[in-house]
Amino acid sequence: MTTRTLFAMALAMALACAGGKDDTGEPDDTSGGGTPQLDVLFVLDNSSSMSDSSQGVAELARDLIAALDADGVDYRVGLTTSDVEVLGGQLLTGALSPEQLPALAMTEAVYCEATCWNVNSLPSVPSYTCGDPITQVSVEVLDCVCGVEAWEGRCGSGNEEMLEAAWLDACTGAGGTLADCSDGTLGFNGATSGLGRTGVPLVVFMITDEGDYSRRLNQGEDDPSLYLSLFSDAGVEPIFVVVGPDYDRDNNSLACNSGGGTPWGISRLLTAADTTGGAYAPIEADDGSGCANQDFSSLAQTIAGYAE
Fold first, then answer.
1. For the stretch 270-282, what's the b/e string if a residue is b when 16 or more beta carbons lie within 10 angstroms of its beta carbon?
2. Which residue in 39, 99, 152, 281 has its CB near the most CB atoms, within 10 A?
């Protein structure tokens, strides 16, 4: 019996015996028709090609939190990036509850820590005053939200490990240690405590313009079953909702591929979404006059609909 199998069995038993605790150590109320609950993990590609989409990510997080609040959902939201060598699936935000001003915290995490901004391409809007609504990300907006120049130098690796980041977060959130959850090749060795509560639906929301290049799968391998089995063996059943390149599965081709993704890299995420009952939306599409970033804000309602 492999070490991975032994750990999966131990983790599953720990989850089963956890006595229905939530992430605060208090009994959860997921059974018996109580308050609807949902956990949402954002996994953001923080490579240099993603800065154009970051405002959309922050706005979707705000819209999602508003939808969850309107529906009276007991939720936890958090954000990590695809750069596991730097974060190891660690949450930049912590597990945010409704009482913790999560919309503000998520905006700060996206803008200040999880985006590789190109200083030379950012507009300057000297008339912007701190606290004004954000209609366009500019140097002044970032200086207000993050602190002067504190948002610079946040570029992640070009090796986007979306599935590995989600697994490390979910595994540590379920009670595993980073040593248990990693495959032994991870350079990150800091403390990690992931998102996730026993018996609560977990949506993994991924945003990338390239795809997945996680270390446990061979280059060119398009089947994410190994990762889906890791989750399942540990008693975690995530729902994958993905924003990624516009993939034509029938022709095995990518349209509007500004990030330089590969069909097999994005097929992993599309298959994960299909297999878990999730959703997939293009980050870019041809609007008739050329490729343009898409508005994926409607996914906020889709994600909120998984609460139970």
1. bbbbeebebbbbb
2. 39
